[in-house]
User: Fold this.
Amino acid sequence: MISCPICHARLQADDKINGSCNRCKNDLQELFHIEQESHQWLRLGYYYLCEGDREKALDSVATALDLCDTRMGRLFFLFIQKLNFD
Ligand SMILES: [Zn+2]
Assistant:
């Protein structure tokens, strides 16, 4: 998450540590947690891709996108879809 979804201020590293936006002071802990969980699913997708399991990789990245839809995640999903394991 680059900016606060409430006031759109650019988030700093300290904001993630504090769990709130530096400008509007809203609690963003749950959103940071969801974002982190999405990153873990992306890493799992990368792991499955390295293991050659395309379906599990796609499922993992789809779960990551359900949690946090990012451009990088969508590109990763499309990349895996285009791979030919045959
Ligand atoms: Zn804010």
Notes: DSSP finds four helices and no strands in the chain.
